[in-house]
Amino acid sequence: MTNGSLIGAEWIGMIAGVDEAGRGPLAGPVVAAAVILDPKYPIEGLADSKKLSESQRNRLAVLIRKYALSYSIAQASVTEIDNLNILQATLLAMQRAVNGLSLLPDQVLVDGNRLPDLTVPSQAIVKGDSKVKAISAASILAKVTRDAIMVDYHKQYPDFSFHIHKGYGTKQHIVEIEKFGCLDIHRRTFNPVKTLLVK
Known about the structure:
Elements: E1 15-21, E2 30-36, H1 54-67, E3 70-76, H2 78-84, H3 86-99, E4 107-111, E5 122-125, H4 133-156, H5 162-165, H6 171-180, H7 193-198
Parallel strand pairs: 1-4, 4-5
Antiparallel strand pairs: 1-2, 2-3
Helix pairs in contact: 1-4, 2-3
């Protein structure tokens, strides 16, 4: 059983795709997802989450949750990001997502060029979110989940337009930080937050 358009001879058995959302923003957790698709229920339209509209991602996320054999979503907190660094926090979130699956995959395919510490065979695939359907599905779940977290942050902190910029370092977000200061959910090791705190 294989998932995705990129098929390698070594990809056999139950495949879990893994991806993350939120490595670059100045605020909020990094979210990872792991997905084992069901070959009996192919989901049309799976692609790299960044190439899909919000409505497309939301629609596909519902289908993934409904038809996947197993999926798991995990995160690493702002504190963990600041203490570990963003790469290690991302790998930790990925490890948690894989460990949270209800089924044990035969192989894990991870988007990117770094692998989390896993007990099952794993392979890193650069641009995997556009090559492997299971990784595409994971990228969609991670992105939709993190966006929902940011919308909730906007409700908690209405001075900040988290529902729009999703915590990324946009001009609007920088102005908000300068005007209202840093929140607990801001990553203190990230510039310009780090620089603004020093000031």
